[in-house]
Specification:
- The protein is mainly α.
- The chain contains ten helices and no strands.
- It has helices spanning 15-45, 52-59, 63-69, 73-97, 99-102, 106-121, 125-137, 143-166, 177-200, 204-225.
- Helix 1 crosses helix 4 (73-97) and helix 9 packs antiparallel against helix 10 (204-225).
- The relative contact order is 0.10.
């Protein structure tokens, strides 16, 4: 007798995981293409001259897809520049940890820490000015702007460590807030002066001289407060 019942073949136990894995890999591939396209176009033409349509076309994705990974052109810039910030901050921390730098005075150590950030930032003044503007005034709820603020906090923590280590053990102050506030001042000076220098096209040697003078002033005040 004929049966109208159909045999149901169960899916392999890991089918759902495989499907999820493929989706995640596809997302990662698309994000990598978008990142590469944005980085290349910003480097070639500058932030202001690039459109999201151009980025989408070079990444070979639809505009709607592009905005699922970064909601605005500013977020695309933050995504690209945050990667540079992260790598150069790591490089600066490694440089500061080297034996010759570890024994240096606080100002040279701070300059050793921030020099990779400065060198990278001056490669494209227009992009750096836009990046600094977005860090300071961008939307606080956006993903990549939030990531940038975390990187700034990490930079401030590294500077605070250098300052705290420079204060004599006989210091009358035991508060860590002093080094945190001084580090914030140094970090703010760095970002503001970098933005100003990129807009004014200040020569790197002049910029470094002016930045060093301000870091020395903040550091002297911090050390004097602990005496």
């Amino acid at each position: 007798m004929r049966s109208d019942r159909h045999t149901v073949v169960p899916a392999p136990p890991n089918a759902a995981n495989n499907s999820t894995g493929r989706r995640e890999r596809n997302k990662e591939v698309k994000q990598a293409r978008i990142f590469a396209a944005a980085a290349e176009l910003f480097a070639e033409h500058g932030y202001a001259a690039v459109t999201t349509q151009q980025i989408a076309e070079r990444a070979d994705v639809a505009n709607g897809t592009l905005f699922r990974y970064a909601s605005t052109k500013a977020e695309l810039l933050l995504m690209v520049c945050n990667d540079d910030f992260r790598r150069n901050l790591d490089r600066g921390r490694r440089n500061v940890s080297a034996p010759d730098a570890a024994a240096a005075a606080p100002v040279p150590r701070i300059l050793t820490l921030v020099t990779p950030l400065i060198v990278a930032g001056r490669r494209s003044d227009a992009n750096t000015a836009a990046y600094q503007r977005e860090i300071m005034f961008g939307e606080p709820t956006e993903r990549y702007r939030a990531e940038a603020l975390v990187l700034v906090a990490e930079l401030q923590l590294a500077i605070a460590g250098i300052l705290a280590a420079a204060r004599p053990s006989t210091s009358t102050s035991t508060s860590t807030s002093d080094s945190t506030l001084a580090a914030r001042a140094v970090s703010n000076v760095l970002h503001l002066e970098l933005a100003r220098a990129t807009l004014a096209e200040t020569p790197p040697t002049v910029f470094l001289t002016e930045l060093t003078a301000q870091i020395e002033l903040i550091t002297r005040g911090y050390l004097a407060a602990g005496q």
